[in-house]
């Protein structure tokens, strides 16, 4: 009741139309608040679709390196999360990205980035490993014939830069080892070993010069493969991050 109004006088209520407008505004705001992520995600999908179509029109002009970088950017989930949070005016959470960065830094600490490839240059890769390489010299039937000396790294430390469509694979016996080599020049610069299917065996003689300091070679009896791998204390762990 307003000050100074006679006792018993009724207070005035706001007009019905005004109350209805306030109610509609509150309901509309609630709907927008509840669906803001949906609207933002829908807009982001349309935006990315437009970018993808534009990229397809120019796809034929890109080289293999540019195509590989584009594929990585389109399939990186963190990019979607970051773009969506920026679109909605919210700061992205960095705790997970900082944690991943710390894990990545600790995994690569003390390592160097080697680059290499086949003879004709159609296949190129990079790999993080020590500058002092521990190389296996196996005497099994296939390693003897192609002199397959190699060092082992986890799959997460290997990256194929180009030439995926120029690789072919040879397998035999258990078919667990994937002997990949270039279709053009026939060089095997890396492969998937039977002893470490979760990693890669890299040929040290296919690395570019300048990053390898020393090479220690260890003979392994591939003619008695099961026994040799079972008795070896560290070979299985070499493909673990």
UniProtKB/TrEMBL annotation:
Signal peptide: none annotated. Gene3D superfamilies: 2.170.150.70. InterPro entries: CENP-V-like (IPR052355), CENP-V/GFA (IPR006913), Mss4-like_sf (IPR011057). The keyword Metal-binding applies. Keywords: Metal-binding, Zinc. Residues 114-226 form the CENP-V/GFA domain. One of its GO terms (molecular function) is carbon-sulfur lyase activity. Belongs to the Gfa family. PANTHER family: CENP-V_GFA DOMAIN-CONTAINING PROTEIN, CENTROMERE PROTEIN V. This is CENP-V/GFA domain-containing protein. It comes from Zosterops lateralis melanops.
